[in-house]
Each structure stands twice: as C-alpha cells, then as structure tokens.
Amino acid sequence: MRLPRLTQAQAPLTREVEIVDEHGEPGVVSIPAERDLTVYVDRRELVTLMTLGAQPELLVLGYLLNQRLIDSAADVESITVDWEVGAAAVRTHAGIDRIEERTAKKVVTTGCGQGSVFGELMAGIDRLQLPDTRMTQAQLYSLVNAIRLQESTYKSAGSVHGCALFTLRDDGDDGDEVQMQCFIEDVGRHNAIDTIAGWIAMQPASQLAGGRVFYTTGRLTSEMVIKSAQMGVAIVVSRSGMTQMGHEVATRVGLCAIGRATNRRFICYAGVDRLVLQPELAGARPATTA
Question: How far is CA 148 from CA 16, 128, 136, 238, 263, in A?
C-alpha cells in the first residue's frame, strides 16, 4: 500500500502565562496551546480545526478517514502542514468523488473542542463488522493503570482530552498482555480520536495484531462510538460516562462500552458479552449508609 508523504510540523504544546491565585499571589503556570489549522484538499478549503497541534498530519489524515471522504491512507499523496500560515495542504491521487455534495450537510458535534461531521451521521454503520474481541476485567484494570502512569500534557497544564489505542495479545502461559500502541492529547476528544485513526492508517498490519481497545477521557457520544467502530475497535473505555445516542449506536453495532473507569470501578453500558468479568478483583463493595 502506498502511504502518503507527511511533513513533521511541530509547535509548542504549552505556554507559560502569568496568573494571580486566590490569595492574591502572582505566579506563572503552563496552559495548553490552541491553534487553528485550516485544511485544504486539492486546493479546496474544507474545514478549520482547533487543535493542540501535537501531530497535525495524522490529525488531518484521520479526519478525512473518519468523515469517510477517503477510503484509506493510500488515497492521499501528501499532507503538508505549515504553522506559519496555519494551513494543512492535502494532495490526493485522484481527488475526492462528489466532495461538494458529500460536504454540503454538516452536523455540529457535542462536547468541548466542538467539531463537525459531514453527511448523515448514521450512514453505513449497519455495514460495520467488528472483530471478535474480548477483554478480561484484569486487562481492563491494567489498561486503566497504564493511563494513570502515562506522562501527559494534562498533568502539567490540564484542559485537554487524552485518547489511547491498546492491543490485547495472548502470551500463553504468561497471560494476556495489554499494550499501549498510541497516546494522543488534544483540546477536543474528536481531534484526539481522529489523530489515532490517522496513526492506525500509517501502520503495518503486524503492528496492530490482536484485539483493539480504545480509551478516552471524554464522554462516549454517538460520534465517538461510530469513529471507534470505523477503526476496527470493538471495545471502548472511558473515564467519563455515555450518552443515550452513544448507547444506542454501541448496541446496534455490537460494541462493548465501558464508562466511569477509574481505579477498580467501572460501568459496562453495552456489549457485556465482550467483557470477561472477574468480580473478585474488584475488592469489597463499599458499605452503604442507612
């Protein structure tokens, strides 16, 4: 498969600003960067994304994939990002068929870092075939712990969402291994999941052998569930909760949705058949007061 040529545009992820605290004391803190990136596809302006700018080329590639404007990374010849002008130039091999028609209808998505999706949100989800991925409760706890230990912009500056892709691998007598493949932060969870989609598209199949699990600090809304399913992910885990439409979509496509996942606690909202429960690992149930 021909992979696109990508620049490696870099920009500072944080900046220091002067503040005054509740005691009237001055100080300096770090805050996340937020910059606009206007995407041009074959010289046609498509959308402006507000982003942290950690891996902008992968963000743009994943955005095009998740919007279903391209079928694979092989459709793209190159992505060039120039932070001096705040633009990403995408050159495709054969153009995007019916791009004006397909981008005419725009749906504004929920949440921080508010984004948009083109076309009918639910179009084509019934054709998605998810892999037969299953995860044990012990693996879930390993995943949550890996996120806890991960160095992040959130720890130093806050105000960002984090997303990660894990693979589950059977190591025989040593048990099942949970391996973090990619960790991305951005000002909005949509950007973070799109960047992971772009990263996946650039990897050889051997890199992603085993079941895929997606983690996000944000809510499991309908568009987050759809994007996860489009990436071949059958299990999603969130530190936050889930919306009604997200639940409906997860049930419809057979995706396992786990929320409120912190320490040893979690709620499985949908697809519990993909989760091998080990309640003895959860410890004693907290006592309730009368």
Answer: 25, 32, 19, 13, 9
> Of 101-105, 154-158, 232-236, which gets the smallest average pLDDT?
154-158
**235-238 and 211-216 as β-strands: parallel, antiparallel, unpaired?**
parallel
pLDDT in tens, 27-72: 998 888 889 999 999 999 999 999 999 999 999 999 999 998 999 9
Helix (H, G, I), strand (E, B) or coil at 114: coil
Tokens 């909005």 sit on residue:
188
The per-residue pLDDT for 278 is 96
DSSP 214-243: EEESS-B-HHHHHHHHHTT--EEEESS-B-
**29 strand-pairing partners:** 17
Tens digits of per-residue pLDDT, 224-272?
999 999 999 999 999 999 999 999 999 999 999 999 999 999 999 999 9
Residue type, 173: D
Nearest 5 degrees, angle CA 43-CA 197-CA 207?
Answer: 125
CB burial string 206-243: b at 16+ within 10 A, e below: eebebbbbbbbbbbbbbbbbbbbbbbbbbbbbbbbbbb
Other CB atoms within a 10 A radius of the CB of residue 178 amount to 22
What is the average pLDDT across 137-142?
Answer: 96
> Is 171 a residue whose pLDDT tops 70?
no
35 close to 51: Cβ distance less than 8 angstroms? yes
The Cα 203–Cα 19 span in angstroms is 42
d(CA 81, CA 88): 4
